[in-house]
Amino acid sequence: MHEGRNRDVPAKSELPWGDILNYNKLLNKFKLSEAERKQNDSIIKSVLEKVAFIIKDMKLDASPVLVGSSARGTSLKNSDIDIFIQFSKNLDNQQMERYGLEIGFRVIPDGKAKYAEHPYVSGLINNVKVDIVPCYRMKIGERTRSSVDRTPLHTEFLNSVMDEKDREQAIILKLFLKRIGVYGSELKTGGFSGYVSELCIYYHKTFENFLKFVNETRNQLVIGPNSSDFNTPVVLIDPVDDRRNAASAVSEKSLSILRISSAMYLKNPDPGFIDLDNDLDKEVKDYDRKTYMIILELKRPDIIDDILFPQIELFKRNLMAFAQRMDFHFMNAHSSVNSSTIQVLLELESGTLPALKIHEGPPADNPNALRFYEKYLHDQEVVRGPFVKNDRIYVEIQRKDTNFKIALEKNISKLNLGHNLNSYKGKIKMYTSKKKILSSMAYREFMSIREPPDLSAGENLKE
Q1: Distance (Å, rounded) from C-alpha 347 to C-alpha 2?
Q2: What is the rounded distance in angstroms from the CA atom of residue 347 to the CA atom of residue 181?
């Protein structure tokens, strides 16, 4: 499976400084402690045994397997435990998903059904989050029915090629990616999954060598064997499926953040930067931007991030489009989400407009000029005109809406916020007061020089 894969790093990727940096303090702090590891091992053993017993009781052709960072020895504190149930390909999707949920709820009776590519059961066991996910059993080279089918093979591959030093380097890289806000392949982040992070170490041996590689490349970042088949910012051919780009989720923004952060770290390497407990964000000051800001706040629906975040992006786009249609000069939009609330901040040059607007007509030599003149000659909304300026005909029209918040309140019901968010339209709160704006999570994130690391992020099921 590994033949032909060269892990040698070019000489030019040697570290640019003399002393090898010591990351032991970080590893001791963020790796699972011995007590935590024993607790996790106990939970894993118990869940695997329960799942195997239920499978036998139901007379199914299936088997449980531990996957993800817990299986690969690269867990950070608070990481999830992922147990996959590999079903025979003789089952259809409906059967497989039904059995998967039944087994999951028998193991975690108070768990919740969550929905990704397949529905799965998620819940707490001894305060540790456990996901029980159905998939199909497959071998390398076989065509998958869904992306999660590869996950057990990912674990098998990495466990066969990585030693303890590699695992520690992968943990350091994950911490770095979390610090700069590009860890996680879910849509809200568009970054590097745990699996991709570990493959980066597989190909470049150390965290610093990978940063040096990133810093030296231009344009598309190709990790591992070259491929010109993928038009994405980052290409990393999946070792267990050479038709798949494992890094397809990485956005251009995330790659740019990584490149800038890599250059900064290589210039002044400091393990303290990677310590997620160190607050590196500058204080958000009460700075008068001389602009108009409004925050729209609504309750977060109980749906997974990969369904929620595209709708939030649609919400922002349609707010921007509305502002521009109403002749307000749009500047910025930013969304912020926590476990219960969504906030969208919109920044305009001004929240008010003049009482009239100049409406431009056709050139005087256009046959429609006369029609324009006759249309507006007796229009009650015309304040002045029609009149000619240079080669065109114009009128000045009285505006119906000059205040952005009032206009938005009148029209919010007409905007498409996304399938799940539309039902919350009538309960949207709008804030424009300076006190509310400055204390909001959306404003603090918008004004921060760095996006805060997501300390709760676990391994993404899609890897």
Answers
A1: 52
A2: 23
